[in-house]
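Researcher: Go.
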Amino acid sequence: MYTPTAMHQTHSLPHFMNASNFTLLLLGFIWGGLLHAQEIELNWQPRQDLNTELPASIQLFDTYGALPDGAPLRAMYAEIDLRDTNLKFRSIGSDAVRETTAETYQNNNAILAINGGYFASDHSVSLIIEDGAVVSKGNHKTPRGAFGMANGKPEVTWTLPAPNGDFALKLNDLKQKGAGTPWLASQAIGGGPVLVKDGKMRLDASAEGFGTGHAIRHPRSAIGYKDDHTLVILVVDGRQEASAGATLQELAQMMHQLGVVAAVNLDGGGSSALMAANEVVNVPANVDGGDRNTLRKNAG
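Model: Structure:
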């Protein structure tokens, strides 16, 4: 999410967060290395109606196309230039309070917001770091992907809740042996699985503790970056006649084709929502068929 001078998170990320709701998954699912996928041909067009209401450092695009098997797809993404000193990126979330992405957007005077990480009925199950303070360190037992800002630069990594202490441990590799190191991010949101790392599509959803049902087509949310100053936030509509959603593999493919060098899936499903210029940009699937006026309350 972004405020008039910032980006925020709606559930625990740059205004992202959800539980099985915030969120980007897989077909064969147990991919431990590089993925080789058929190109997804999408014709992205700028949303001029919204871009004129946003600073030049934030540009929105959408597409109405089809996946390789002919299934319909509607998706939208925002590209954000962090060199704009009037922008402030924040991960806004709560371990107890539930808000819709629209409510978090409005309550924080934001100009762009997306849902965040995973949550249960009474707590967040994903990492949330807001303004340097750990709101939730998550409760996952296996390393899971996360996005954060550390030393002023975007980063996608894997984290584990510290067994002792109110902080998260960062792992440089999903299969890393031994303890990680404290992640000193100023803003962060947990999700998973990691979609792209070091410029390559990489998925190992099972190693991050996700079941096969998480890999099939659903509405999706994802965040990544092209370089130290260019963020990409993507939302894919799903569970609707006009859009089938995306598998984790398809989501990774889409982010990779957009040129990111690293990306992570956020909570998806009924939680996937993107706000910009006081408008719900996508068609959230909190209710059957999708409805812009009915958004899910997330952990943020």
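Model: Residues 248-257 form the longest helix (10 residues).
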